[in-house]
Design goal:
The complex is a heterodimer of chains A (115) and B (111).
Chain A lengths: L4 E3 L2 E4 L5 E6 L6 E8 L3 E9 L2 E4 L8 E7 L2 E6 L8 E8 L9 E2 L3 E5 L1
Parallel strand pairs in A: 2-11
Antiparallel strand pairs in A: 1-3, 3-8, 4-5, 4-9, 5-6, 7-8, 9-10, 9-11
Chain B lengths: L3 E3 L2 E5 L4 E7 L6 E7 L5 E8 L4 E4 L2 E6 L4 E6 L8 E8 L7 E2 L3 E6 L1
Parallel strand pairs in B: 2-11
Antiparallel strand pairs in B: 1-3, 3-8, 4-5, 4-9, 6-7, 7-8, 9-10, 9-11
Classes of the chains: A mainly beta (115), B mainly beta (111).
Amino acid sequence: DAGVIQSPRHEVTEMGQEVTLRCKPISGHDYLFWYRQTMMRGLELLIYFNNNVPIDDSGMPEDRFSAKMPNASFSTLKIQPSEPRDSAVYFCASSVRGQGAGEQYFGPGTRLTVT
Amino acid sequence: GEDVEQSLFLSVREGDSSVINCTYTDSSSTYLYWYKQEPGAGLQLLTYIFSNMDMKQDQRLTVLLNKKDKHLSLRIADTQTGDSAIYFCAESRTGGFKTIFGAGTRLFVKA
């Protein structure tokens, strides 16, 4: 199994630009999570989906952030417009019920730098 | 509310044992986890313990749970330089899929 795949691995953009991060979960996993990691705030859960439906988006920082999961094998996290304070590493993780509630498999992350 | 706390840094010598501690506040926690994050990588699940267990051992790793004090620890025997990483404690409960992560403990292993 290829594991969770994220693209791009690195993204550098200018303030005000739209940024789209992509994730392919492990096949057969029905939960997908988006996290943000910074030195100041640690690991924050932004949103998670179950069977492609958003369940909890209370961690999405503001309306500039949106996430979609059009099918079981693909999800996007979009930031529009981006700001320097959005600079962070964004992780996607997937899981399946029955393995234990929190056994999440993380992707390698996308390092976003907004200048 | 739910909270998981860990010390931020731990430094040990190669060959010694490392003990990373964690406290949590949610008495409804059912599963408690230890994840490892190496530089430039995502988190990787190391081990987990169900709340009705006191201890779990897996090769060099020993997890101890004191449910009364809501204290979890991870002991790494014979610590190697390859164990240098950030270790995250996490908790979740049955029926809820949200996992709460601590801030992570950065383990430095000196040769």
